[in-house]
Write a structure and sequence with these properties.
The complex is a heterodimer of chains A (108) and B (122). In chain A, 0% of the residues lie in helices and 47% in strands. Chain A has no helices and 10 strands. In chain A, strands 2, 4, 5, 8, 9 and 10 form a 6-stranded mixed β-sheet that branches. Chain A has a 4-stranded antiparallel β-sheet with strand order 1-3-7-6, with no helix packed on it. The radius of gyration of chain A is 13 Å and the shape is globular. By secondary structure, chain B is mostly beta strands. Helix content of chain B is 0%, strand content 54%. In chain B, strands 2, 4, 5, 6, 9, 10 and 11 form a 7-stranded mixed β-sheet that branches. In chain B, strand 5 and strand 6 form a beta hairpin. Chain B is globular, with a radius of gyration of 14 Å. The termini of chain B are far apart. The chains are: A mainly beta (108), B mainly beta (122).
Amino acid sequence: SSELTQDPAVSVALGQTVRITCQGDSLRIYYASWYQQKPGQAPVVVIYGKNNRPSGIPERFSGSSSGNTASLTITGAQADDEADYYCSSRDSSGHQYVFGTGTKVTVL
Amino acid sequence: EVQLVQSGAEVKKPGESLRISCKGTGYAFTSDSIAWVRQMPGKGLEWMGIIYPGDSSTKYSPSFEGQVTISADKSITTAYLQWTSLKASDTGIYYCARGQYLVRRTSWFDPWGQGTLVTVSS
């Protein structure tokens, strides 16, 4: 399968921890990358590889992977983290890419 | 600073042709790939295809194969996404993004262009 499945929406209280998951067969072979997209803006990578944060991404963002599931964790969520989050990886063939279905994170 | 700058918004009629562009600056354009991603109104991200400007090789998502053409002119560090006959269902925002790799298991897209809004309406 070349699909990546995410929960449509999650909510988290300000300052609490939220985990967003991404499931797909290709994740047994390839690491996921994670993208944050705020309304009217282009996506921004927040995590890639085993658990790599690009320069400028807060330490509260972390990634992990087990079997066919990749996870993005926000520890101590802030109001500014309210956004849509997408995972992505190569597909099982390795020649193409696929995006997850997206998760809308609401910070209460 | 590494940047991808896309061409401006377009309004077209069904059946018309269109080419939008994505200019890369601040890095070795031929060393990395450029991907194109569609976002239809209110929907998620869809990977369309990728080009490796070093040799102009391309890969397309099955959903977009034959519907669009991806190309690049490395002399001006610019990638293109082209349609020969637009449909109303092509309406959306199109992003380009630089593909980066550590090892085969690890790849990601960064940075992204600002997006090009394409509106197809009669």
